[in-house]
Amino acid sequence: MTSRALVATVALCGLSVAACGGTADGTGAGPAVGGPASRAASPASQTTEAPKSAQETPQTPATGGGVPARPLSGKVVVIDPGHNGQNYRHPAQINKQVNVLTQWKACDTTGTATPSGYTEPAFTWDVSQRLAKILKARGATVKLTRPDNAGVGPCITERAAIGNEAKADAAISIHGDGSGSANHGFHIIMPKRINGPVDPVVGASRKLGLAVRDAYKSGTGTAYSTYIGTKALDFRNDLGGLNLSTVPKIFIECGNMKNSGDAANMQSPAFRQKAATALANGLQNYLK
């Protein structure tokens, strides 16, 4: 979740608050994720990840004539799963201030969670794994900003650098919001011009955002956000992951994890598979 006003204070077990999209560099306005106790209430099915690691090479689908259907061959996509599973254990490390050009912000944040304890880092990692597998099957080269959900960080500045160094054709940062429980829906966050490195790709990022928005809505049935942006589109200049990007990049808040309806979807492996497929379709529509 990516909060509008970074809450750099430590909450609960000494954690920084929020993530990206509505409130902090994680996105969302909900309270910080707690430790293992907060996750214990989550059913095992909620943390079910993609059947196989996204690092594996999937089977290549073929067309009716036996010709491999690889529409994304030659394309590089960077997937940024928001936050990390152990951020809450290292408040000093993630609260380190980094320069995002328009201000100084925390290196990273803990993310939010559903009322039952399903965490944003678990959600973003699961969807990212599923998305990576689909994109690879379509021929794309895929890079992730973190290797698992058992670490800390990386900092928001490093996440941007990974996309830049990969010379990505498109980059997407996946999040879940933590707003008030009455708010629901998804939204896309796109960069603003800041007289900085992101300026040359602001236009391309908007095209990417529109493609992903349309595909996500049609593919998942999730409503546009009722509380942020216009028709699920939000523009920000306070997110390091966008400000420092030199490649087309967007953030998506896949739903509000504090809303019961959105939470039920996000906790469902079947929904997460639909979300990953929709995101892949949006990326492909942009890249084709």
TrEMBL record:
GO MF: N-acetylmuramoyl-L-alanine amidase activity
GO cellular component: outer membrane-bounded periplasmic space
A Pfam family annotated for this UniProt entry: Amidase_3
Sequence segments annotated as region (Disordered): 30-75
Residues in MurNAc-LAA domain copies: 160-284
Ranges of compositional bias, category Polar residues: 48-62
Composition-biased stretches (Low complexity): 34-47
One GO-annotated biological process of the protein: peptidoglycan catabolic process
Keyword terms: Hydrolase, Signal
InterPro entries: MurNAc-LAA_cat, N-acetylmuramoyl_amidase_3
Signal peptide residues on this chain, from the entry's feature table: 1-19
PANTHER family the record matches: N-ACETYLMURAMOYL-L-ALANINE AMIDASE, N-ACETYLMURAMOYL-L-ALANINE AMIDASE AMIC
Name assigned to this protein: MurNAc-LAA domain-containing protein
Species whose genome carries this gene: Streptosporangium carneum
